[in-house]
Amino acid sequence: MPKTVDLPKELEEHLESYVAAFNSHDAENVNSHYTEAGIIVWEKGNPVSGEDRHAAIKEFLAANQPRIETDVREAYVTGDTALLVVDWTMEINAESGGGRENLRGVGLDVLRKVNGVWLYAVDDPFGEEPRD
């Protein structure tokens, strides 16, 4: 099991707020955690931003009713930029239409501090292979 990293308080609050919004399926609130030009790469090799990002978040939350847990493996902060390596597990509605299924991955997230608030510039949940 990876060791939990001590995060600067503002980054820890950002991540807690994001997880709470994600788990409550609040697409508007989830979207508010990104810079205006921020991208998500929720489908490997297909980054989306702007209105496409907002639509993808809304569709994913509505269709899957996800529940996510995160554990920051590594965090690097320099000035107004941060890189987080995040182990995550998620429970979603099964594609077959019955029950739930579990997913896991390692995200590579780049955040920028904008007007004193940390926001995702790049959210890539499949940036690295999970540890066994």
From TrEMBL:
Ranges for domain DUF4440: 13-119
InterPro entries in UniProt: DUF4440, NTF2-like_dom_sf
Coiled-coil positions: none
Cross-referenced Pfam families: DUF4440
Protein's name according to its UniProt entry: Nuclear transport factor 2 family protein
Organism: Streptomyces luteolifulvus
